[in-house]
Automatic annotation (TrEMBL):
Species classification: Bacteria, Pseudomonadati, Pseudomonadota, Gammaproteobacteria, Enterobacterales
Domain Methyltransferase type: 72-125
Signal peptide stretch: none
UniProt-recorded name of the protein: Methyltransferase domain
SUPFAM superfamilies in alphabetical order: S-adenosyl-L-methionine-dependent methyltransferases
Keyword tRNA processing: no
Single GO molecular function: S-adenosylmethionine-dependent methyltransferase activity
Positions in coiled-coil regions: none
Gene Ontology biological-process annotations: methylation
Source species: Yokenella regensburgei
Keywords: Methyltransferase, Transferase
Length: 238
């Protein structure tokens, strides 16, 4: 297995339209995300990366939505996603729409998202599926240096392992858009053969286990030994 961290940096696309069938990808992601966006609540939604900023999140009840990236528009905060300028546990939800595929250190990016998320905060990840038609096209040498084939495609299992190490509870994961070059993405194939979908979606929540015991709760759960009826103290001879 190749290491997650790489020394070189590949410039991510600024807009979905910069990659072939990019608008189809964006529409497919918005369709899959819409039922989950209605479940998000809180005060702050962080959309990390240029592609995340273009995802329509109007269905989300969180009104304060901040776009963060090093460049591009529309951006409210210009910063490196690996060094988010936000306090710990200050964000209710993080959207990383195809941010990991062009990140040189995905582990650090996930740790930063975990740092700024509140307890029970939401994390949404999307990316490309290496076991798909897009993954096969990545094997063609001529296409390796073009977008989106210059991105990194992590398997769903590998990403789930990363989230488990950070103590995230995965609520939902799916693959879709089997045929990249069609708007519907091959609806019949996506229904019967979803494992070949070129897009992946993961919905997770941050779970925090307390490291110190609550003394009040501990006293309530402690089993008390009842005094035996008719018992007397041990008698000692002088």
């Amino acid at each position: 297995m190749k290491p997650a961290r790489i020394p070189q940096t590949v410039a991510p696309p600024i807009h979905w339209s910069e990659m072939p069938w990019g608008e189809y990808y964006r529409e497919a992601l918005e369709y899959q995300l819409k039922p989950w966006l209605t479940k998000l609540y809180g005060f702050h939604l962080l959309k990390i990366g240029n592609l995340s900023a273009e995802i329509n999140t109007e269905a989300c009840a969180i009104s304060h939505q901040v776009n963060v990236s090093l460049q591009g528009a529309p951006m409210q905060v210009q910063a490196d996603p690996l060094w988010l300028p936000f306090a710990e546990k200050s964000v209710d939800a993080c959207l990383l729409a195809h941010t990991l595929p062009w990140c040189e250190d995905p582990h650090r990016l996930l740790r930063e998202a975990d740092r700024v998320l509140i307890d029970d905060g939401w994390l949404i990840l999307t990316g490309f599926n290496p076991i798909s038609l897009m993954g096969l096209r990545k094997l063609v040498p001529v296409l390796r240096n073009t977008t989106p084939y210059n991105s990194r495609m992590f398997t769903l299992t590998r990403q789930l392992d990363w989230l488990a190490l950070l103590n995230f509870e995965v609520l939902h994961y799916s693959r879709f858009q089997v045929l990249p070059w069609t708007r519907q993405g091959g609806r019949l194939l996506s229904t019967h053969v979803p494992a070949l979908g070129c897009l992946q979606l993961i919905i997770a929540r941050k779970r925090t286990i307390p490291l110190t015991l609550n003394p009040m709760r501990q006293n309530k759960t402690k089993t008390r030994i009842r005094q035996a009826v008719g018992a007397t103290r041990q008698y000692r001879k002088p």
